[in-house]
């Protein structure tokens, strides 16, 4: 043993980066998510602007172009879950934790490389979707997607993937974690809406992870349901992400793999 | 050096490991023996910090495994079952572990060659046979050139070549002054390589003994006696404190007195002996006796 050999966070992150990019499924997932984002943007905008007199505005163009981001969010959410449950399923987690017995740096490193690999992919896909959306506007008309909405649309799936990673660490079994993810993030908010009294429902539902993530790229025009403004939305998703990862990290530390 | 003190781990109501204490010394191969379910794997997992003990401590080189700055360079461990993602190659798998410690790709290639996986290094682990997976597990244990090596049932799934390779490797590692702890449920396999034995059953230590001592301790288990004066001998031996069983063919199985004493007794009663054969207990028998009587 030489003094040079010791565990550092940068090394754990480097290791996790290598582990992520050596899996074919990583590339397949990111490519699929990108194709769906761009494909849906093209299909939806073509459909809308086939009708004469369709609204041409930043709000409409942004909503139409980034409608497919919800699908990307689900795909990346599962991607985040699998980053950790895949290790439990294969038994690799024991080797990983034998190498890094403090465990929590592993989860943090996974979060870092998830962002490093995921955000460029979603940003490229959303930028391509934006260009396609603009190109499909009716001849002679013009509208722009705000840069904030572009960045928000790219960040939203990554944020949900990080929450997925936290849930994966918490639950550990792939199927169970996906079930929890779908129930807690997608089904529960939909049930909350009718279950709570009117204005209270809106106040609560605004802050659930998916709604806050959507608010990152929504261009508001005074819908009956008011989404969070970008700033509070960013704060809200950050809190959810930190909570999910902290809970997952605590569970990693406490329970034997 | 591995030091285990009063280690206890419960799963629900049953204690998998129950107040276990032992020391594993460097420079020799220590066999960790016990029937399936005796607590061997759980103990090994606790030594490397994967399972948290309910009480007691396990230290390697004087400190708990979890607190070391370079765990892979302190202890190399092969645990039961696969611990590889099927989609990664052997080399990628090892790099994923090596990079956490800043261990070089050259060392990864080295341990792949040592494990006889040089030719399969860039094949996906999902296609590996059980034997190749075991070899990859051993390669990962050697990655950090650790002073302590812990292998859980390493010969499982290995072909005869692989078994021979493991035996040689264990002896070499011990000869280099490393601490080597290797578990098995088979005495026959352990006896080939181990210098020292820790025998456990029901989570408790049953024996902490050198293999040579065990052979001595096993000693004579019984004597087979044939004599035309069997009836006379039977009562004389019983009077002398022996346990005597008569076989169908007239032979006597005598336990509890040595062959010399049987001969002397026979002479004093003028009984003719046609046969007096001491039977030594095998290591296998000694092991079975220890696990049966005290487990």
From TrEMBL, chain A:
TM region positions: 21-46, 66-86, 107-137, 149-171, 178-196, 233-253
MF term (GO), any: ABC-type transporter activity
Tagged with keyword Membrane: yes
GO cellular component assignments: plasma membrane
Transmembrane keyword on record: yes
Keywords assigned: Membrane, Transmembrane, Transmembrane helix
Name this polypeptide is given: ABC-2 family transporter protein
Species of provenance: Actinoplanes philippinensis
From TrEMBL, chain B:
Pfam families recorded: ABC_tran
Cited SUPFAM superfamilies: P-loop containing nucleoside triphosphate hydrolases
Domain ABC transporter residue range list: 2-227
Source organism, top-level taxon: Bacteria
Transmembrane annotation, as ranges: none
InterPro entries assigned: AAA+_ATPase, ABC_transporter-like_ATP-bd, ABC_transporter-like_CS, P-loop_NTPase
A GO MF label: ATP binding
Keyword Transport found: yes
UniProt keywords, alphabetically: ATP-binding, Nucleotide-binding, Transport
Family: Belongs to the ABC transporter superfamily.
Name of the protein this chain belongs to: ABC-2 type transport system ATP-binding protein
Source organism of the structure: Actinoplanes philippinensis
């Amino acid at each position: 043993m030489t003094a040079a050999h010791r565990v550092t966070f940068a090394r754990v992150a480097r290791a996790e980066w290598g582990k992520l990019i050596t899996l074919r499924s990583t590339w397949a997932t990111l490519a699929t998510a990108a194709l769906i984002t761009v494909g849906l943007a093209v299909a939806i905008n073509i459909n809308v602007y086939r009708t004469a007199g369709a609204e041409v505005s930043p709000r409409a163009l942004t909503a139409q172009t980034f409608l497919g981001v919800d699908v990307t969010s689900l795909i990346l959410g599962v991607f985040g879950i699998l980053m950790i449950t895949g290790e439990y399923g294969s038994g690799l987690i024991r080797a990983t934790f034998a190498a890094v017995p403090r465990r929590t740096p592993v989860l943090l490193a996974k979060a870092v490389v998830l962002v490093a690999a995921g955000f460029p992919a979603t940003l490229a896909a959303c930028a391509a979707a934006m260009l396609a959306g603009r190109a499909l506007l009716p001849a002679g008309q013009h509208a722009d997607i705000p840069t904030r909405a572009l960045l928000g649309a790219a960040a939203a799936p990554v944020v949900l993937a990080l929450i997925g990673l936290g849930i994966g660490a918490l639950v550990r079994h792939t199927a169970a974690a996906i079930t929890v993810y779908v129930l807690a993030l997608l089904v529960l908010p939909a049930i909350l809406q009718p279950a709570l009294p009117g204005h209270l429902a809106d106040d609560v539902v605004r802050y659930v992870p998916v709604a806050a993530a959507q608010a990152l790229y929504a261009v508001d025009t005074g819908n009956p349901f008011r989404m969070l403004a970008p700033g509070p939305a960013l704060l809200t998703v950050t809190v959810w992400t930190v909570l999910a990862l902290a809970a997952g990290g605590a569970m990693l530390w406490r329970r034997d793999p | 050096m591995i030091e285990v003190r009063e280690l206890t781990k419960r799963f629900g109501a049953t204690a998998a490991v129950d107040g276990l204490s032992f020391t594993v010394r460097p420079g020799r191969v220590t066999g960790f023996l016990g029937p399936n379910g005796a607590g061997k794997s759980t103990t090994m997992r606790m030594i490397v910090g994967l399972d948290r003990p309910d009480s007691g401590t396990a230290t390697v080189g004087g400190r708990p495994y979890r607190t070391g700055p370079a765990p892979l360079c302190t202890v190399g461990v092969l645990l039961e079952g696969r611990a590889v993602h099927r989609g990664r190659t052997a080399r990628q798998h090892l790099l994923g572990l090596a990079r956490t410690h800043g261990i070089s790709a050259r060392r990864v290639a080295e341990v792949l060659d040592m494990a006889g996986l040089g030719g399969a290094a860039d094949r996906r682990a999902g296609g590996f046979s059980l034997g190749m997976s075991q070899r990859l597990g051993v390669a990962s244990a050697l990655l950090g050139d650790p002073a302590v090596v812990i292998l859980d049932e390493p010969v499982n799934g290995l072909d005869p070549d692989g078994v021979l390779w493991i035996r040689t490797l264990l002896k070499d590692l011990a000869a280099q002054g490393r601490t080597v702890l290797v578990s098995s449920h088979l005495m026959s396999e352990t006896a080939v390589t181990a210098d020292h034995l820790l025998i456990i059953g029901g989570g408790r230590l049953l024996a902490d003994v050198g293999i040579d001592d065990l052979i001595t301790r096993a000693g004579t288990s019984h004597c087979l006696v044939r004599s035309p004066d069997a009836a006379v001998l039977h009562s004389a031996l019983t009077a002398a404190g022996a346990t005597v069983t008569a076989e169908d063919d007239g032979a006597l199985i005598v336990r509890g007195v040595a062959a010399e004493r049987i001969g002397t007794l026979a002479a004093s009663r003028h009984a003719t002996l046609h046969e007096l054969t001491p039977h030594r207990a095998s290591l296998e028998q000694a092991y079975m006796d220890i696990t049966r009587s005290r487990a």
